[in-house]
Design brief:
With 232 residues, this protein is an alpha/beta fold. The protein contains eleven helices and five strands; from the N terminus they run ααβαβαααβαβαβααα. Strands 2-3-4-1-5 form a five-stranded parallel sheet, sandwiched between helices. The N terminus and C terminus are likely disordered.
Length: 232
């Protein structure tokens, strides 16, 4: 398992493409680093665009000025448990004093966003909450709470939402105030040199006779490159 694979969340490691190689993409990591210096960063693109891998590689990159808390949503889970799941991730990350974590644990679902805002003021190191598959967040009560968190969170707490589209949060105010950054499909698309490097790295692990099965270089989505690697 290489570094790129190690940085993936545990729930992503069972996916079919997990055993294919992951190529570091410094250009995209730097772009995400700049985006997450805003209050909210959106990483949006279609299935196969490489959103999760890009965010995970960014999260694994060395940084002395931030901590990352990662939450992945799945289609079969009750989204009303969002705040409880987020609390558990925060508890494991140990970003706050134990008494602050206990204060969060006692919060109701409606009150959790307000308490998290209070507790975030105690952060001495900036933290970024990553919500993967954010397009699945369709519970109106949870979305309203997310709006509260975004509106009132201190500068020490940022949000990175990765999904096929943004959840139903209010974006106009964030755009107007310069607090929103977006990384879209054009940013996620692989440039020709990145595709070359990925395919060369993948081909190195296969017999020379099978290397002809790899597609010609060209920009595009990682989802278009990985099937060739897996099939080979």
């Amino acid at each position: 398992m290489d570094l790129g694979q190690q940085c993936l969340p545990e729930e992503q490691r069972g996916l079919p493409w997990f055993n294919s190689p992951l190529l570091p993409r410094p250009r995209l990591t730097e772009l995400l680093d700049r985006a997450t210096r805003h209050k909210v960063a959106l990483v949006c693109g279609p299935a196969g665009a490489g959103k999760t891998v890009a965010c995970a590689q960014w999260a694994a990159a060395p940084s002395g000025d931030r901590q990352v808390v990662w939450l992945t949503l799945s289609a079969d889970e009750d989204k009303s448990w969002f705040w409880a799941d987020l609390y558990e991730r925060l508890r494991r990350a140990r970003l706050m004093p134990r008494e602050a974590t206990a204060y969060l644990e006692e919060a109701s679902a409606d009150g959790f966003p307000f308490r998290l805002v209070e507790m975030a003021r105690q952060l001495t190191t900036p933290a970024v909450l990553v919500v993967d598959n954010a397009h699945m967040l369709d519970d109106p009560v949870v979305v309203a709470g997310l709006d509260v968190l975004i509106r009132h969170a201190p500068p020490t707490l940022g949000l990175l939402l990765a999904g096929r589209h943004a959840p139903g949060i209010t974006l106009g105010r964030l755009q107007a105030s310069g607090e929103l950054a977006t990384v879209g499909p054009a940013d996620l698309a692989w440039r020709s040199d990145e595709a070359d490097a990925y395919l060369a790295m993948a081909a190195a692990g296969f017999p020379r006779a099978s290397q002809a099965a790899f597609p010609a270089r060209g920009p595009g989505l990682i989802g278009e490159l990985r099937p060739a690697v897996i099939r080979t």
